[in-house]
Design a protein that fits this description.
about 0% strand
Length: about 475
């Protein structure tokens, strides 16, 4: 059930209506039932995978908390991580590993039917709820209290607004909002929830899906596109993936607020980052914090020698890349960002003595933002490409400076894409001036009087979105992860 469909709107309205009517003692269980129904609209059999995972993790979490033996704690922790990673590897990476071995065998002149892909259906959200399950177990090992009941832990994993694509939430961040009774949201929280829903639909349906109509054909025909079109494709996807995922997160947070449960912010204007480390503090924040706390720091973080820190950064980002998908392009994308982070760390250590450089020149931050954005765009080309050849072909065309300049001078096919360039320029500007636009919008709405005008504006927006929802919506990009 896609968030941006009439089916989901009907599901949400029905769920919310019943939620408002029933006793607060039963609201948590009702939401849990609705979460299973929500997941079952994709696959009923795969619910069994989540039931098995949550049951095992709840039991092992209780055992870890109750035992005093450090050895037993570590054994139980290891068992839980192996089970969760085993589920993830089987469903998500088995065919990737088999196809990789098959391709290697073909190169070496050896093939075997054992290495042919299997018919495995990927459970939706498996990457996200696996990370949440691991964080739950590790936190208990580190001294946090386990869930008071299996239903509470199950609610944490299954809660439908964040089940499929996050935000990645830790149990200790969420349990206080549902552990006992869920109260009804107050007027300000309801208003914020509906606003987030509205913006989420706008970001997804009007911006992301519209820009996808530019990027998809160009990426699909990458061998025949020219230099200008390669830049058009890469910038379009850079905008698409941001507003697609931002739209999903806004909808997830908005829906959750309607049930009086607050999910964490996942984006903080990432394209305004002044370096690659700053980008990862702004992009998919809950994932960045997860890989820092449960991968990077356990590997040693920056506590060892400089070469160890560099290795830890690269290994962490390689795993983060593969977490996104079972394909070499995701692994390369992770390695690319790992190398960028390592290079940034080396530069900061040797050139600036681990201090953030400060300058009075106002152009330096602007240049830093442009440079970081350019590096991020290169990464998105790798991320979006379905093969190494596709990524290299597009990047070669993007950075073939003589060919690019020749096309601009001769205006070769430039006029054919004038509308697309104008559209992308406007959307790209929105990425950078988002904070100013948000502040302006807040002030304008706050000062609109009388109240009926404000209600009329919201009604127009909602009606416009309903028109967009009549056309088939593209799945959210992160749904496949």
């Amino acid at each position: 059930m896609n968030f941006v469909t009439f089916q989901f709107v009907i599901f949400l309205m029905t769920t919310l209506f019943i939620f408002l009517l029933i006793n607060k003692n039963y609201r948590k269980y009702f939401i849990l039932f609705c979460s299973y129904f929500f997941y079952g609209t994709w696959s009923v059999p795969l619910i069994g995978v989540i039931l098995f995972s949550t049951s095992v993790d709840y039991y092992l979490g209780k055992k870890i908390h109750s035992t005093d033996s450090k050895i037993h704690k570590k054994l139980l922790l290891t068992l839980s991580i192996l089970i969760n990673c085993g589920i993830l590897i089987y469903f998500k990476y088995t065919n990737f590993l088999l196809s990789s071995v098959h391709e290697l065998g073909s190169v070496l002149g050896y093939t075997h039917p054992l290495f042919h892909p299997l018919n495995i259906i990927l459970p939706l959200g498996v990457s996200f709820y696996t990370f949440e399950a691991i964080s739950y177990i590790v936190d208990i090992y580190r001294g946090e209290k386990p869930a008071s009941s299996w239903l509470n832990y199950n609610f944490y994993i299954m809660y439908f607004p964040h089940l499929i694509s996050g935000p990645i939430v830790r149990y200790k961040e969420l349990y206080s909002q549902f552990e006992h009774k869920i109260e009804l949201a107050d007027a300000s929280r309801l208003r914020e929830g509906f606003q987030l829903l509205l913006y989420g639909f706008i970001f997804k349906l009007i911006i992301a899906d519209s820009v996808a109509s530019i990027s998809d054909p160009l990426f699909n025909n990458y061998q025949s596109i020219n230099h200008l079109e390669s830049w058009l494709a890469s910038i379009a996807f850079t905008i698409q993936i941001y507003f697609d995922f931002l739209g999903y997160t806004h909808i997830a947070r908005g829906v959750s607020l309607l049930f009086n449960i607050k999910l964490p912010i996942n984006f903080n204007h990432p394209y305004n980052a002044c370096n690659i480390s700053d980008f990862w503090k702004r992009w998919h924040i809950t994932l960045s914090l997860w890989i820092r706390d449960y991968l990077y720091i356990p590997l040693g973080g920056n506590r060892g020698a400089l070469y160890q820190t560099v290795n830890n950064l690269i290994i962490t980002m390689f795993i983060a890349g593969l977490w996104h998908g079972a394909s070499w392009n995701y692994a390369i994308w992770g390695l690319y960002h790992g190398c960028l982070l390592a290079l940034y760390h080396l530069t900061k250590t040797y050139l600036f003595n681990n201090k953030t450089p400060h300058t009075e020149n106002r152009m330096v931050p602007v240049i830093s933002i442009i440079g970081t954005f350019t590096l991020v765009v290169i990464g998105w080309v790798i991320f979006r490409s379905t093969s190494v050849d596709q990524a290299l072909t597009i990047l070669n065309k993007m950075y073939d400076i003589p060919g690019f300049v020749h096309e601009i001078i001769n205006n070769k096919q430039g006029s054919a894409y004038s509308d697309s360039f104008i559209t992308l320029a406007a959307m790209l500007a929105l990425c950078f001036i988002g904070p100013a636009v948000k502040s302006l919008e807040t002030n304008i709405l706050a000062n609109i009087q009388p109240l009926w005008i404000k209600k009329w504006l919201y009604s127009v927006w909602v009606f416009g979105l309903m028109i967009f929802m009549f056309s088939p919506a593209k799945p959210f990009i992160y749904f496949v992860f």
